[in-house]
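Session log. Operator J.P. requested a structure for one protein chain; no other inputs attached. Running the standard single-chain path with token output.
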Amino acid sequence: MPNTRANKEKRVDIFIKQARVMRLMNRFKEHIRTLEKNLPIVEELGDKDRLAEYYFKMGFYYSVRGDLEYAIRYCTKSIELAELTKNERIIGLASVRQGYNYLYKGEFKKVIPIVQKGVKILERLGEHYWLGRAFEAIGAYYWFTGNWDKSINYIQKLLKKSEEISDNNLMALACWFAALPHLEKGEWDIAIKYCERCLEMSPPPIFATFATGFLGAAYYKDGQLKKGIECMEKAIQQGKQFGLKLQEVVTSIYLGEAYLSIGERDKALETIKRALEISKESGFRHWEGMAYRVLGEIYGGNDFNKAKNYIEDSIRILKEIGAKNELAKSYISLGRLYKEKGEKDKAKKYTTQALHIFEKLGTLHEPEKARKVLRDLG
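Structure written below.
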């Protein structure tokens, strides 16, 4: 094919159109290399609309993989270019994805304003698929911050939107995503049903990987430890094959907790250290805070000072970003640590703080754990 401008434009448009198919097939590494390789051609063409969409595709791919530095950079470039040409569609799409980037980075205050900006545009344009993804992003924000009812409400909007447009891929995503607030609220039977429903739909590999991981977490929380650990181990291996750092970290934290619950301390330590390493490299502040808490619990029976320092690091991060439910988990971990050391006043202080947060959020099961610690303290 002659290296004419028209042919270059055709090649670029093919790469843009391939993006969703390659993502659903979990061919992230391959396609991001293709996008990077051909970026100079797109920039040389000087077509701002085409370049804005190309930047968006790159930002989206990096976001899903968990490479936040590149994800934020390319989504920002996409929005800036699209605003110059008044390309509302790309502004809407890139704004929604940028909201996710801020969420993963722990910059929660930036999430709702930029996603709502996208929602207004997408509603006006009738972009129903991406409107559903915007509801997903808002639902995720409320999940991260512990507002279970609002999270469930927005994810129900996502489910409804997927049904309205009869998009099976969006429906599969909505099903595993709907499990998340129920998982952390403590409604594990509902979380299990949503993940199983997703897997019954024969979803794309990326959604099957996430669903399997969260199904394992729900089984573990529900006391079905063997099934839970098997699912999570499988999901982590799949995530590594596909280069999904985000998925590996999230599932690894649940898996580390599960290993610890059955006395597999060495496995728990190896798993959580890996999750912490990726979280720090990628800027996943929320999961960094969670990983520090589990590390503290692992060291709790052996090294008080090391355990205390890890849990205090967790509290500092989670308080800073506003992850209330996870903050309460760290408070109760610190309370238990002081209880084992015989420092009753400090144990009561942190456990009471945890109880108040759990009760305010409406989290199930966790308040009773806090009350038991307080009863034991007398």
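Operator note: The first helix runs from residue 5 to 24.
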